[in-house]
């Protein structure tokens, strides 16, 4: 797009949008007692609703049981394993989606826990979108219009999740729960330090990514930081930083002028092979494979 002329800059404009949201399909399945989906990670978000029965999910070393009508949100790069623990079996529906906007990703990571709360007033909006998706499963084929409807529903799902996140953010801001407030301060500091480093990825700034440095800046011990953060967000501070790194690296891999080595340095990896191994652990693809796969989809 050409640069805006001066006269256009002086009047009201709608924003330019250059953001990709991808929908990787969805399915419904009925499984029997004892069923297990082997441990896996995805490079995209996974959202799932339990329709019947009970699912047990192992996530970051913890076990969570999900019952009928409960919604699970698994962030990108998170290792997890699902199993059916109800004698009568279980039925679920899930979809996978991705957004290349780091700001949206950060909001979902910080304020949307693995188990979405029914007390949040936007829970029902998220549920409504998922049930609309389920209604579409009966079709044998999809016309162009129906495919656009699926994409429209994805936008509605992301908007509902962002509304959910905003509700949680506002609740946290007005909370007098010291643990919640401290956990939010830790998350904010990790985000701010990571952003500062990516803007100036110099050796003297590398301490910004150190968990010990972050704890010291908040006048708490590293063990207290770990305990408080895991209690609120269900992941460690280091894992949260890794999720920010992963999301940023996916975004940067869409920038063809940046080499993989430059991207590794920007997000704080001193060794290219270390970054490549970690990225493959997150997404099951190497950085070059991820870049190639996304270029082919354009």
CATH class of the largest domain: Mainly Beta
Under CATH, the homologous superfamily of the largest domain reads: Jelly Rolls
User: Structural class, from helix and strand content?
Assistant: alpha+beta
Helix content percent band: 40-55%
Order of helices and strands: HEEEEEEEEHHHHHHHHHH
CATH topology of the largest domain: Jelly Rolls
Total discrete domains: 2
Give the tally of β-strands: 8
N- and C-termini, Cα separation: 18 Å
Q: Kindly provide the radius of gyration, computed on alpha-carbon positions and rounded to a whole number of angstroms.
A: 20 Å
Number of helices: 11
GO molecular function: DNA-binding transcription factor activity; sequence-specific DNA binding
InterPro entries: AraC-bd, Homeodomain-like_sf, HTH-like, HTH_AraC, RmlC-like_jellyroll, Tscrpt_reg_AraC-type_HTH
Organism: Enterococcus phoeniculicola ATCC BAA-412
Protein name: HTH araC/xylS-type domain-containing protein
């Amino acid at each position: 797009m050409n640069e805006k002329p001066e006269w256009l800059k002086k009047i009201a404009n709608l924003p330019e949008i250059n953001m990709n949201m991808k929908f990787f399909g969805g399915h419904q399945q009925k499984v029997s007692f004892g069923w297990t989906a082997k441990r896996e990670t995805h490079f995209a978000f996974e959202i799932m609703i339990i329709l019947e029965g009970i699912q047990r999910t192992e996530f970051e070393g913890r076990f969570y049981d999900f019952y009928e009508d409960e919604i699970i949100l698994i962030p990108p790069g998170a290792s997890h394993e699902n199993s059916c623990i109800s004698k009568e079996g279980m039925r679920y529906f899930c979809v996978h989606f991705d957004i290349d906007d780091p700001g949206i990703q950060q909001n979902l990571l910080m304020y949307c826990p693995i188990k979405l709360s029914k007390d949040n007033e936007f829970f029902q909006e998220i549920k409504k979108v998922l049930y609309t998706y389920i209604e579409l499963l009966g079709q044998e084929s999809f016309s162009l219009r129906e495919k656009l409807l699926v994409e429209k529903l994805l936008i509605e799902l992301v908007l509902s999740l962002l509304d959910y996140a905003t509700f949680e953010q506002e609740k946290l801001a007005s909370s007098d729960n010291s643990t919640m407030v401290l956990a939010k301060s830790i998350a904010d500091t990790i985000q701010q330090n990571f952003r500062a480093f990516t803007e100036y990825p110099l050796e003297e700034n590398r301490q910004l990514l150190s968990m010990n440095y972050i704890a010291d800046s908040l006048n708490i011990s590293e063990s207290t930081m770990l305990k408080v953060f895991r209690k609120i967000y269900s992941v460690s501070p280091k894992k949260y930083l890794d999720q920010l790194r992963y999301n940023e690296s996916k975004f940067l891999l869409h920038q063809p002028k940046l080499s993989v080595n430059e991207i590794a340095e920007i997000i704080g990896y001193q060794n290219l092979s270390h970054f490549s191994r970690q990225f493959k652990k997150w997404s099951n693809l190497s950085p070059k494979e991820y870049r190639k796969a996304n270029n082919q989809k354009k």
